[in-house]
Amino acid sequence: MKPRDRGRDLLDGTMWGFLAESLFPLTGLLTASFLTRHLLPEGYGVFTLVASLVAWVEWTVTSVFSRTTLKLVAEAEDWRPLGTTLVRWHFFLGVAAAAVIVVLAGPLARLLGEPEMAAYLRLMALEIPLFTLAQAHRNILTGLGGFRQRAVTSAWRWVARLVLIVALVQLGFSVTGAIVGNLTASGIELIVVRYYCRPPVVSATAYPWRGLTDYALPLFLSTLCIRLFDVQILLMLKMCGGTAAEVGLLGAAANLAILPRLFTLSFTPLLVATLTHLQRDGQLQKARDISRDSLRLGFFLLPFAGVAAGAGREITGLVFGTGFEGAGILFSWQIFCVVALVMLNTCASILTATGRPAHTLYFAVPLVLLGAIANVLVIPLWKAEGAVIAMTGCATLGAVIALVVVWRTWQIRPSPVSLARSIALTAAAYALSAYWPAPGAWLLVKLPVLSALAVGGFFLLREFTGREVALIRSFLPWNRSAPS
């Protein structure tokens, strides 16, 4: 039997996963556009604070075992005892985290100067156990190689979220309706993923706790730092005197800069599983080649970020309407910050798959410290715009440190020539986007055209290798042969 092409599986799974996760910007922007018009900046700002706080808790809890699950399940001969242990711990941690939010909801709301947030936080906390259980199943499914099934679960979640939030808010439930819709969507995701992956709830064979903690602790700390860096700008803007409306503008900009984040969600879990499978099968050189190519993906995202940044004001005006004009410049910077975080998370995934989880702390800890210092210094003077610029600089520096750590650990690095080509294309894409006016619906023509030109630019500069071109062609319906 012909051996599996892990590289092709990775690309196939990433494509399907990204398509599924891309429903979130489509459904998410429709949801955000609906909510900004019904809740106005103040109400949307409160909802953004509540959703961001709970989302940070959810991702922090699941980060305890997320990359560890991918690594250990991919290595295991029998994954079921491990799966039982992971599902139990995700549930216990989810319930504990929800209880903490319920208890601290009042003090947190007073600290942020929004007393009405307390009730919303307590309601949103109910989603945490559902979310953590769903993520446990998704990570096990990914470790087993069920990349397409993972994509299906994402599709169910995002479509359900849109329908439920719009229906409940339209019925007059306001912020409460948005929260209940989000919560119910997590429950639907859990039901769907449980259909594809059913780790035993009870197992007679216990998985050794030491095998989990050796990976889980350093990866939890590093992911905690990265997640804290991602959310701290919203919290510190509010604590340093920002209004709920300013937080709403920043939250709107963050929602628009979602595509690179979704690429991270689609790609990095699959990368950990793929590299682990290759090393288990003794294909070390193949693992190194895929790792090196993965580091180039951050460079490929830069020109598309340039296209979006150049049209920042047009995009925010079309999506959010009046009252959100100030989100345009925030989005233009934030999109580059998110691309830097994609590179950083890719480095963390490579280090996890190669058995060096503690090395992720070398760049995760400086990242969050630099971000906190930058926010404290910049926000009182330049508010949200200065903070976004400073955070973009911190994320870029963190990505550079991460690349150095990967190079010193595994002696691989992306080509400086690839970086130079990407920077040149990014500058050209930004200039074209900024100086091509596209009011209203014309923006829907401008963005695809400039994105296609960016792809063409990569081909003209011969950035893609012959094998990469053959791999892409193998996915076309009239050419189904995979490259050798």
- What is the domain tally? 1
Ends apart, CA distance between termini: 15 Å
Q: Outline the low-pLDDT stretches.
A: 480-484
Q: What Rg is obtained from the alpha carbons, in whole angstroms?
A: 22 Å
Class from helix and strand fractions: mainly alpha
Helix content: over 70%
Report on the biggest sheet: none
Q: What is the count of helical runs?
A: 17
List the secondary-structure elements in sequence, H or E: HHHHHHHHHHHHHHHHH
Q: What does the average pLDDT come to?
A: 79
List the helices and strands and how they pair.
Layout (H helix, E strand, L loop, with lengths): L5 H16 L1 H41 L2 H10 L4 H32 L5 H9 L1 H17 L3 H50 L12 H31 L4 H13 L2 H22 L3 H27 L1 H9 L6 H27 L7 H50 L5 H20 L7 H18 L5 H8 L11
Question: Would you write up a description of this structure?
Answer:
The protein is mainly alpha-helical and 484 residues long. The protein has one domain. It contains 17 helices and no strands. The chain has helices spanning 6-21, 23-63, 66-75, 80-111, 117-125, 127-143, 147-196, 209-239, 244-256, 259-280, 284-310, 312-320, 327-353, 361-410, 416-435, 443-460, 466-473. Helix 2 packs across helix 4. It is globular and about 55 Å long. It starts with 5 loop residues before the first helix and ends in an 11-residue tail after the last helix.
